[in-house]
Every structure is written in structure tokens, then in C-alpha cells.
Amino acid sequence: MPEQERHNRAALGGPRLLLRRLREAMAEPVSAQARLDKIVVHIASNMVAEVCSLYVLRSDGRLELFATEGLNREAVHLTTMRSGEGLVGLIAETAEPLALSDAQAHPAFSYKPETGEEIYLSFLGVPVLRGGNTLGVLVVQNRARRTYSEEEIEAMQTTAMLLAEMVASGELQSMVRPGEQIAVRRPLALEGTAIAEGIGLGHVVLHEPRVVIKQIIAEDLVREERRLNESLAAVRENIERLIELGDDAGAGEHRDVLETIRMFANDRGWLRRLTEAVRTGLTAEAAVERVQNDARAKLQRSTDPYMRERLHDLDDLANRLLHQLTGQSFIAEHDDLPDNAIVVARSMGPAALLEYDRKKLRGLILEDGGASSHVAIIARALGVPAVGDVTNITNLVEAGDAIIVDGSSGDVQLRPQPDVEAAYAEKARLRARRQEQYRSLVDTPCVTKDGVKIDLHMNAGLLIDLPHVAEAGAVSIGLFRTELQFMIAPTFPRMNAQYQLYKSVMDALPDRAVTFRTLDIGGDKVLPYMAKAEEENPALGWRAIRIGLDRPGLLRSQLRALLRAGAGRELRIMFPMVAQVSEFEEAKKIVHRELQHQKLHGYELPTDLKLGIMVEVPSVLWQLDEFMQRVDFLSVGSNDLMQYLFAADRDNKRVASRFDPLSPGMLRALRSIARKANDAAKPLTLCGEIGGRPLEAMTLVALGYRGLSMSASSIGPVKAMALGLDTGDAARFVNDLLDSSNGCETLRPQLHDYAERNGILL
Ligand code: PEP
Ligand code: MG
């Protein structure tokens, strides 16, 4: 029999036998090293190779030879290489198998003399992967020139999956030299976007628990293939049903996502890979995990954001399949939430966060979702420290891992070293002390050094926000985002439900005004149960007051709920995204018609009705005189104003961080609004995020703003800033700076210096 054929036969007939041998080896009560030594012997013999070696990735980024059959034994735990160095390093870096019949001819080839590997010509290496991350590299080598078949590569990948379990279990940690660590358990410092302030120390709870694969090696291949096919059929059927149900499904899933998932579920290549993986001897669920691991490794390394996005769809499909196969639950059990839980999720809807026990929840980390995601709004309202946009976090953590979330800086520390943990614990204590100081300011009026009163209002949108109003010492609710009730509800809230909420809010705050903003949906604020209009450019599309005016039924029922809730008291209503005077006029007409309607039906009316607009579409800046004649008040929505002025999507980190709100362009726009409003004696506030940041707030006060609306946690810091400010002096400084700036990107450094020089707390 020719040698090549003998190799093929042996390897083809062998994977299941090998897996069985490996399973036996893993169950033996011997040391981890003795176990690994046996494993490499089995693999070498099964693959008809002279050499089999396992390299494990250490936390310092080096791959260490952990076991070998065929190379010099003395090299074990001595030979190391960088990721990217030599063929083994190349596999670790690319996370892809590499099969070479003449390894020495490969440009990346380099050899370690102490191993004696220079005499081997053929080389097959596969990455040891978990969650798409490289944990090590498994290699076989042959002295003679040899072509490794697809089946052999497949068998090696399956074997590597088994080894990944062993590496991930932490069992190998005892084998490294003191001071070294294997990569899988290594501490990681990760960066994301700060979305809700505060520091949380705790342990990982996966929002969507990973399916635990209890059995990797199949007992009965035919049965596993049948299980795989049946589950695939069930998942496909389920997806079809969801697509058919469309928006009635209430699952919050968009049709295009489901359609992409359906496309993957019918992809021949994917189905073939799954079947092949089962045929190497894996259970159906282990096969899904293996194939998904490879896909993750590939797509994670893709520089194309579209491809990375597809990884989520593929992950979603693999998850559905795993749940179908194992019958395990999709969502974390809320009942046995550990104390100090830090919830880690790929993405999360706002209602889901509310289901966790707030007392045990110490933090939230999202892979997808930044500061303006809906769940971020809830996290801020609940005071849960949160960080978003943390790349690949769900694949890097294991349930129960120690983790720290810093919602002020956007940092995440996974499996922190004791000194890092101590530093954060100290930071958290300091923060608590500072909060204590802010609390002592609650009853102090916010008056600047030169006697100017600054009104600090709070942004809210849910009942859970209300206790914070008094706690923070806010003078009123400057922005009540009514869409939040709609965003977290499973179905469209009826007029009565809206009325109940508005009434509860006003009842809870009898001495404080509440400015209700009418529904600001569309754009980034999507309602899961509402048909989504397909728009090329939703931020510039059908949203907010545009929907309100085109669908007056919707606006009317909200206005009715507001007017009824405001019976016998002051009612303030504000319209979002107004771009021209006629829109405000039209909205006003609807309000007055509704007032008449209420009167006719004998309802008590509000004693005082004030109507205002958000200034957040740039066109308003050149119609300010006209608006001043018509509105009772104005509030600058700097989040949107900034996005539209700079044509930079507020949710797109790449472009949003390019432009500074403290740039001359933005500040001049803000100044012109303040001047016009002050000249016309119209009450003006600003309710975007910048109002809650002390340096920005200082600048706004200097530009003439006397009312700022912000999240509850910002009121203390902004008040502390304002108490040390001389508005007259600051106004001179900022106006001069703005008038003399010529072409600079930002005035932040100069403003910062000014605050420091004048002892203003930031
Ligand atoms: C804004 O745009 O600044 C604002 C306050 O509104 P929202 O963030 O809800 O769009
Ligand atoms: Mg806005």
C-alpha cells in the first residue's frame, strides 16, 4: 500500500478511536503533565506522525511547549516563541490550520535547535480555540514529505477542541513556572465606552448563559447526525415562523437580521462543516461549538465591520441550535443571582435589565451598545455602573470570573491582579466619599460666587427615576423623555397607561415642574413592536415630531393623556426635532384642539399650559427670532444638535469622538441661542449630555445658560463647579477666547486651565 494512502486510511478510520483514547486518558487519575504526555503519544500514533507537540499560550503572549512526542523532551517548558514567530506562532496569530508538505520552504519557518525538529519535513498545525480565541497550538510532524488530507486536518481540529477544554479548565496552570500564567485565565484590561457612571466590583453573570456542553465525544455517530439534522430543521422552522409573524412576534428582532440568520441556516458550506465535524466523532452540540469557534476566529480577525457584524448573526444561529440541542435556557436565572453580579451581555433590551435584582446588580457590560442605547438609559436611571462597546467580551469571560467595571472611564478589568483590584476598590471608596460630599450640597442653593442663580434640573423618563429628583436636589424635571415608557413596554402603551404614568410623575413631585417631551421615536429610538420604516438614513428620517404630525392620532392620544394628567396644575409640553416654525404651529394647533375637546367633555384643564421646543436641528438657529415670538420656553438638545452640526453620528464612535463640543463651531452656535433667548427673555435650558459635565457646564454658564438639565448623578459635580464660579469673569474669558480663536479644533485645554487657575472644581 503506498505510504500516502496508508496515512489517509489510518487517519480516516482513526478519529473516533483517537477521541475514545483521549477521553480515557483524560479520566485517568494522573498528573496533568503525565496526562498530556499520553495524549500527544496517542495523537502521534493515530495520525501516523513521528511528532506531536502541544504549545500553550501564556499570558505574556509566548507559546510554551507543554508536551511532545518525538521532539527532545528536555525542550518541554523551555522552548517558547512569540505569537507570530515561526509556523506555530503564525497559527496562533491567524487562528487557522496550516498544513505543509515542505515546512522548511515556508517563509515563516524558523526552528528551535533544542527541539531537534529540523529533520522533519511535513508539518500540520491547528489552533487550540475557545470562543474564537487562541489558547495554544497542536502540531504533528513527519520526517517524509507528506500531504495531510482535509479529513486529517478536520480530525486534528476536533482533537484540539478537546484540548481546549483541558486548557480552559485551568488544569495546566500548575505546570507553568512560578510567575508565569497560561493565557486563558490571564488578567485582561479592556476598553469600552463609558455609559453609566460608577465603579462596580464583582463576578461575571452572563446574560445569555453559554450552553454547557456536557458530552463532547459521541457514543453513536448515526444518532448524533440525526440529532443535528432534526435540530437544524426545528431551528429553521422557528426562524421561518418568526419571519412570518413579523412585527407581531414582539421578539424585538428585525426582519433583516432574521433573514440573514435564515440565509446562514441554509448555507451549504456551514451545513457541510457541521456534518463533517459530527463525523469526526463529536456530539452534535460539540460539532456546532467547534464549527462556530472556527468561524469566530476568522470573523473576529476580519477588518471589515460588515463581516464582524455577520459574526453576530452566525453566533445567534449557533446559539439557537445549541439551545435546541440541549434544551438549556436562553436567559440567566434571575432567582439565584449572586451578590455582586456584573452582568455581561452581547446586547440587551431596556426591559431585560429591569428584571435583575437591583440590590445584587453591581455593573453591566455590553459588547454592542453605547451611551445612547436604550439599556444605557435604564442603567443610568438605576445607578448601575455600565460600560458598552467592549469588543468580544462575551467570548473572553467565563461565568463567575472576577471583573471590575468602571463606568466613568469605560475601562473593564477582567480577572484583575490583587493590586489592580485594590486600586479600584480604593477608587470606589473615594467616589463614595465624593458622593457623600455632593449629598451634603443637596440643600445648598446653586448660586455662583457672584450671586447668579443656576437652575439644575434632572433628565428622567421612568418612575424609577423619581426618587433621585429629591435625593439629587434637582429643581425640576427639565426633560421627561416620554418615549422611554414606549421603549421598554412589550406593546404600544394605550392612552390610559400614558395618563397613569404622567399623573404618577406629577403627583410624586407636587412642588416641582416637569417638562414632558412628546414622543421622540425613530432614528436610534426604535420601538420593537412598531413596524420599522426602511430608511437609508434614519437619523435624518421619519422621526419625533415628524411622526407626530404625520400620524396625529398618536400625538393626539399622548396630548390627551398629558392634558388629563395635568388637570388643575401647571403642564409643560416640549416638542422634539422641530426644524421649522410651521411644525411648531401645527403641533400647537393640535394641542389647542385637544384642549377644546377636553373642555367640551367636562374635564378639568391645566391651570397653566406652557409649550416649548427642543433646539436640536440646526435649521432652528436661523429662525430663532421667529421661534422666540411663539414659544414659551426652549431647551437645547445638544446631543442631536452636535450630531447634525458636525454631520457625525452620535452613536458612531469613529466619528463622534472626532469632534469636541468645546470647539469654536459648537460653542458659537450655543452662544447665539443663549443670546437670542436671553434678549427675548425666554426661559432656556440645555438638556444634552454636555450639561452634566462640569467643564462643559462651566462654559455653558459663561455663555449665558442659566438652566441645565442632566442625569441625577451629574447634579452634585455641576453644583460643586458652579459654587466656585464667577460668571462675570468666566463670561469675559470664554467670549474673548471664542472671538479670538482662529481655526483651532477645541478650546478644551484653555478652558481647563481657566478652571484650574480659578480653583473651580471639575
Ligand atoms: C439631545 O438630543 O440632546 C436630547 C437631550 O435628546 P435625546 O438625547 O433624547 O435625543
Ligand atoms: Mg435629541
The CATH class label of the largest domain is Alpha Beta
CATH topology of the largest domain: TIM Barrel
- The shape, in one word, is elongated
Q: What portion of residues is helical?
A: 40-55%
The CATH level-2 architecture of the largest domain is identified as Alpha-Beta Barrel
Q: Rg, please?
A: 31 Å
How many strands appear in the DSSP assignment?
Answer: 22
In the sheet with the most strands, the strands line up as: 7-14-13-9-10-11-12-8
> Please, what is the CATH homologous superfamily of the largest domain?
Phosphoenolpyruvate-binding domains
The count of helical stretches stands at 28
The domain count comes to 4
Termini separation: 81 Å
Measured by DSSP, the beta-strand proportion falls in: 15-25%
Bound molecules: phosphoenolpyruvate, magnesium ion
Describe the largest sheet.
8 strands, mixed
Category from helices, strands and their pairing: alpha/beta
Weakly predicted, low-confidence segments: 3-12, 248-252
Helix and strand layout, with pairings?
Layout: H1 3-13, H2 15-27, H3 32-46, E1 51-57, E2 62-69, E3 80-82, H4 86-94, E4 98-100, E5 122-130, E6 133-142, H5 150-168, E7 188-191, E8 193-196, E9 199-206, H6 221-245, H7 255-265, H8 268-279, H9 284-300, H10 305-326, E10 341-345, H11 350-354, E11 361-366, H12 374-382, E12 386-388, H13 393-396, E13 402-406, E14 411-414, H14 418-440, E15 455-460, H15 466-472, E16 477-481, H16 483-488, H17 495-508, E17 514-517, H18 545-550, H19 552-565, E18 570-575, H20 581-600, E19 608-615, H21 624-630, E20 633-636, H22 638-645, H23 653-656, H24 664-679, E21 684-686, H25 694-702, E22 707-710, H26 712-723, H27 727-740, H28 748-757
Parallel strand pairs: 9-10, 10-11, 11-12, 15-16, 15-22, 16-17, 17-18, 18-19, 19-20, 20-21
Antiparallel strand pairs: 1-2, 1-6, 2-3, 4-5, 5-6, 7-14, 8-12, 9-13, 13-14
Helix pairs in contact: 2-3, 2-5, 6-7, 6-8, 6-10, 7-10, 8-9, 9-10, 14-26, 15-26, 17-19, 19-20, 25-26, 25-27
The structure holds phosphoenolpyruvate (PEP) and magnesium ion.
